[in-house]
Write a structure and sequence with these properties.
The active site is at 155 (proton donor/acceptor). Its cofactor is Mg(2+). The structure is a single chain. This protein is α/β, with parallel strands linked by helices. It has 17 helices and 14 strands. The chain has helices at residues 67-80, 114-122, 131-144, 164-167, 173-178, 188-202, 256-260, 279-286, 289-294, 299-307, 310-313, 321-336, 341-367, 379-384, 386-395, 405-408, 442-452, and strands spanning 2-9, 13-21, 28-36, 44-49, 52-59, 95-100, 110-111, 149-154, 211-216, 220-226, 229-233, 374-378, 423-425, 434-438. Strands 5-4-3-2-1-6-8-7 form an 8-stranded mixed β-sheet, with helices on both faces. Helix 13 packs across helix 15. The protein is globular, with a radius of gyration of 22 Å.
C-alpha cells in the first residue's frame, strides 16, 4: 500500500489530498488539507480527515506567505495528526503528484527527473502566472522528501487529442513551431474525470460517450468531448482565452489591450528574475473579469443580485419568436430603469457570463454534429449555481436541452448508500441529450493516474 500526496498549487492557495492505493488499484482518499488566502493575509489552514473536520479554520500567521511555506505547514499538520497512521514521518510518503497547469506537448504524466524539470522551466513563459508556483513546491519536495517519486500531471495532457485544424492558429507556422504557439487547452484533469464519471453514469463505454462539459469556477472553460477524448476546448495557448473568469477577461479583440493602456508591452512590477509578466498579461489576467465589472470575485454575490430579477429576466414565452423577442425587449427596458448601479453591473456580469457560455455550447453542438449525450456542469459555480444552470439551459433550449427545475434547485443528487453521487441528473425526464451536474475531483484524477502508471512504482 502506497501513500500518494496530490498537490494543487494555485495563485493564492495550496491544496493537498492524501490517498492510499495499491499498484494499479483505485485510490482511496483519507485526508485533505488546504492553506488559502496567501494573497490576502492572514492565510488560513483547514484540515479534514475523512468526514472529520480536524482543523476547521486556523490562521497560520504572516510567516506563511507563499506556496512553499503553505506546503510546509500542510505537511507538518499531516505528520502531527496522531489519528492519521499512514503518515507518521516524511518517509511514509511514496508518490507526490503535482498539478502542472501547462505541460506543453506532454500527453501523459511524467516522472520528474532533471531533464523533465528543465523542460517545465522552459514552459514558464507560456504560463507565468501558474507553473512557477508548482515548480517551487517540486523543488521543495525533492529536498525534503528525496525518497518519494515526484510526478507531474498536466492540465494540458487531456487535450493532446485536439485535431490539428482546431489547435492551429492562422499565423506563420515556422514561427508557431519555433515558439510553441498553438491551442493547448486547460482544466484537462477535471475534464478527464468528468468524461469517465459521466460515461459510467450513462452506462456507456467511454469511447462511445460524447458530451459538452463546462468547468465553471473563478477560472472557467468549456470542452467538446467526442468519444471520450478532447475534440475542442475554449482555452488556448494560455488559460486566458475563452470564457471570462473572476479576474480574467476571456477572449477579447487582440488589439483591445493596446487601446486600454500605453505600457502594456513593458514588464509588470510583479515580475521577478524567474517570472516575466508583461503589463498586458497582468491586465487581462488580474484586472479584468467579474472583478472589473462588479468589484467582486464572488460569483455567489453576482448571482444573488441577478436572482431578484430572475422572475422577469428568465421568463420566456413558451412558443413563438415574436413573444420571446418582446419579453427580452421588456427586460432591457426594466434594466435601463434600474437606478442601482451595483445591481446593474452584477446583472450585466451574470448575463454576459451566460451568453458566453451559451455561445460555446452552440459552437460545440455543431462541431460534434449534434451527437451529444449530455451537457455537463462542473466546477464550483457549475455545481452550486442553480440560477446560472437554469439561465444557460434556457438560452440553449433550441438545441433540445431541457431542465427539471425541481431537480435543478434541489442542491445535489439523491444520496446512495449514505454518499452523495458524483454525477446527478437535472434534465427533464425522457429528454435527450441529458443535463447533468458532476462533482469533479482533480486531486483524485491525479492519484488515479499515478496508481495506474507502472513507471511511478
Amino acid at each position: 500500500m502506497a501513500v500518494i500526496l496530490a498537490v494543487n498549487a494555485g495563485s493564492s492557495s495550496v491544496k493537498v489530498s492524501v490517498f492510499t492505493a495499491e499498484k494499479g488499484g483505485t485510490p482511496s482518499q483519507v485526508a485533505e488539507a488546504q492553506v488559502s488566502g496567501l494573497t490576502a493575509p492572514p492565510a488560513v489552514l483547514r484540515y479534514a480527515r475523512g468526514d472529520a473536520s480536524v482543523i476547521p479554520h486556523r490562521e497560520v500567521g504572516d510567516a506563511v506567505n507563499d506556496q512553499r511555506s503553505a506546503f510546509a505547514t500542510i505537511l507538518d499538520a499531516l505528520i502531527a495528526d496522531p489519528d492519521l497512521p499512514v503518515i507518521r514521518r516524511r518517509e511514509d510518503v511514496s508518490i507526490i503528484c503535482h498539478r502542472i497547469v501547462h505541460g506543453g506537448d506532454f500527453a501523459k504524466p511524467q516522472l520528474i527527473v532533471d531533464h523533465t524539470y528543465s523542460h517545465l522551466e522552459a514552459l514558464n513563459d507560456l504560463a507565468p502566472l501558474h507553473n512557477a508556483n508548482s515548480l517551487g513546491i517540486i523543488r521543495q519536495c525533492c529536498d525534503w522528501l528525496p525518497h518519494a517519486r515526484n510526478v507531474a500531471c498536466f492540465d494540458t495532457q487531456f487535450h493532446a487529442t485536439i485535431p490539428r485544424h482546431i489547435r492551429t492558429y492562422p499565423i506563420d507556422q515556422a514561427i508557431a513551431r519555433s515558439n510553441r504557439l498553438r491551442k493547448y487547452g486547460f482544466h484537462g484533469l477535471s475534464y478527464s474525470f468528468i468524461a469517465r464519471s459521466v460515461a459510467r453514469h450513462l452506462g456507456r463505454p467511454l469511447r462511445e460517450t460524447s458530451i459538452i462539459a463546462l468547468h465553471l469556477g473563478s477560472g472557467a472553460s468549456a470542452c467538446a468531448i467526442r468519444g471520450g477524448r478532447s475534440w475542442d476546448t475554449s482555452m488556448g495557448l494560455t488559460p486566458l482565452a475563452g470564457l471570462p473568469g473572476a479576474t480574467r477577461s476571456g477572449s477579447v479583440d487582440p488589439s483591445l489591450v493596446f487601446h486600454y493602456a500605453s505600457d502594456v508591452g513593458k514588464l509588470s512590477p510583479a515580475s521577478t528574475r524567474d517570472l516575466h509578466i508583461s503589463r498586458a498579461e497582468e491586465i487581462l489576467n488580474k484586472e479584468a473579469g467579474w472583478k472589473a465589472l462588479t468589484g467582486t470575485t464572488d460569483f455567489g454575490k453576482i448571482a444573488a443580485a441577478a436572482a431578484a430579477a430572475a422572475g422577469r429576466s428568465r421568463k420566456r414565452a413558451p412558443e413563438g419568436a415574436e413573444n420571446r423577442i418582446a419579453a427580452e425587449e421588456e427586460e432591457v427596458e426594466e434594466e435601463e430603469h434600474d437606478n442601482d448601479e451595483d445591481t446593474r453591473n452584477k446583472r450585466l456580469a451574470f448575463d454576459l457570463f451566460v451568453d458566453r457560455i451559451s455561445g460555446f455550447i452552440g459552437s460545440y453542438y455543431v462541431t460534434l454534429r449534434g451527437q451529444v449525450d449530455a451537457l455537463v456542469f462542473a466546477g464550483g459555480i457549475g455545481e452550486k449555481s442553480d440560477l446560472l444552470r437554469s439561465a444557460v439551459v434556457d438560452q440553449v433550449s433550441c438545441l433540445g436541452f431541457r431542465l427539471d427545475e425541481e431537480a435543478n434547485g434541489a442542491g445535489g443528487g439523491r444520496q446512495e448508500n449514505g454518499k452523495e453521487p458524483i454525477v446527478w441528473d437535472i434534465g427533464k425526464e425522457g429528454i435527450t441529450p441529458r443535463v447533468l451536474v458532476c462533482k469533479t475531483d482533480e486531486q483524485f484524477e491525479m492519484a488515479r493516474l499515478c496508481a495506474e502508471g507502472e513507471e511511478f512504482w
